[in-house]
Structures are given as C-alpha cells and as structure tokens.
C-alpha cells in the first residue's frame, strides 16, 4: 500500500519467469494482440460495408467480434506493460475495474451466442416467420440486452468487493479475475451467493437456452432434406464449438477459485491465458473462413489487389 497517496496495490504473481523471458513474452503477446485486432476488425469492416451481410446472423457475428476486441483490450495492454516492468502490480481500484469489464464482456459473449442460436433456430425451424420475427427492432433489443444486462448485474458485486477489507495483496494470476475473493480478510456469503446468481444468469441459463435451440434444430434437420442439413451444419457447428470451449474455460475459472484448488503455477498460467486467447483469436477464423459469404468477401479483399498487380505486369 502507498501510504502517501492512500492507494492499495495488488501484486500479480501468476507470471512464470517473467524477468528471464520478458522480451519473448512481450513479442508473442504483442503479435497475438495485433492479430486479434486486425482479424476481428477486418471481418467487422466487411460486414459493415457489404449490404448483403446486413442480416441478423452477420450483425450478431460483428457484435461478437467487437466484444472480443474490447475484451482483449481490457487484458493485453496491461500484460504488455507488466512484461516490461520490474514489478507486476496494479491498484486495487484498477483491478476491480478490470475484473468488472472482464466478466461483463464474457457475460455479453454468452448472451450474443444465445441470440445467434435463436436466430438460427428461427431461420431453420420457422423459415416463413423469420422476416417477421427477426426484424431490426428485435436485433436492437437483443444487442442492447447483451451489452447492458451483464454490467447491470456485475456493478453490484464490484461495489460490494470495493468495500471489503483486504488481508492479502498477492494474486496467483496475471490479470484480475475471480481470485480477488481470496484477498478478503473474511469471505462474504453475500458476494458468494450473488456470484452464483450472476453465473447462472449469464452462463448457465444462456447455455441451457442454446442447448434447447440446437436440439430443436437437430430434430428439424434430421427430418428435412440434405440442403437444410447442410445449412444447419454450416452455420451452427462453428457456433457450437465456440460455446463448448468457452463454457468449459469459464467453468474452470469460476470453480477452481471456489474450491480453492492449488494448481501448479505453469498450469494456472496456461489455463488463464486460454480464456483470453482462443475465442478472440479463433472467432475470426470460425466466422470468417468457415462462413461462405464472409469468406467470399475476404478473398476478394485480400486477393483482388494481388490479381490486379499480376494483371498489370
């Protein structure tokens, strides 16, 4: 704690041999961050400029990719600073802000995935009613809920955590997450109960809704022609892979803190990084290269200039 400024600092003790490999860590994470920004932004740009991509499915994909960029920006710049610093510290207020934004954006991602699953459900199971149900107003409501509902829930738990007395000032992680509860002198039943409530609302309930919609989609596809089955596989399989991966990583993040599991430092580092690495980095691949319309525009964007150069030569 800085007595002069009355600032409480938290040490981020989850780094592995950071003083030895600081420049290697910095270069790898910097390259990954640039890739995340460029790849996600490229697809969002394509969806924005092409009129035929102004459909609900692609709008939700753009929202998901924007969410990934903001989530990465909440984590990666601070990581880069820590790699080049002698001490990996953060003020408790900044830690709470990072924690709040981290879980807000994760909650938004689950709700966006739920909105995407509903869009696919209506498109495949109720195709004649799709234009009536998935109107612009409906899309705006879904986007507003996805980005406003999580912060409204998490602001309460962040405020309660800000008023807790701290007896420990070291986290065994590289960014602020659920493990801040281990800093408290006395564990709060109110915070724990509220945390479970938020986990159910932003994680489990959206998951159950998505499972329900996919079950309905699979039933309809099994009874339909090959064209419908191909459409479902093309649009739903990437969505399902993202969901399964994300839910298991979030469950690890929440459950290990609650059970106070003591994993080796390297294992903890790897698992923590996966949560902020896989989805932001691979979402553009899954929703870019694997989605026919987006993939077509991507090829035009990157290969058309090369073809023009070859033509001039």
TrEMBL record:
Cell compartment(s), UniProt: Cell membrane
A GO term for molecular function: G protein-coupled receptor activity
Record keyword Disulfide bond present: yes
Pfam short name (any one): 7tm_4
GO cellular component: plasma membrane
Membrane-spanning ranges: 23-48, 57-76, 96-118, 139-162, 191-215, 236-255, 267-289
Membrane topology per record: Multi-pass membrane protein
UniProt xrefs under InterPro entries: GPCR1_Superfamily_Member, GPCR_Rhodpsn, GPCR_Rhodpsn_7TM, Olfact_rcpt
Primary location group: membrane
SUPFAM superfamilies linked to this entry: Family A G protein-coupled receptor-like (SSF81321)
This protein's UniProt keywords: Cell membrane, Disulfide bond, G-protein coupled receptor, Glycoprotein, Membrane, Olfaction, Receptor, Sensory transduction, Transducer, Transmembrane, Transmembrane helix
Domain spans labelled G-protein coupled receptors family 1 profile: 39-287
Keyword Glycoprotein in record: yes
PANTHER family: G_PROTEIN_RECEP_F1_2 DOMAIN-CONTAINING PROTEIN, ODORANT RECEPTOR-RELATED
Family: Belongs to the G-protein coupled receptor 1 family.
Protein's name in the database: Olfactory receptor
Originating organism: Seriola lalandi dorsalis
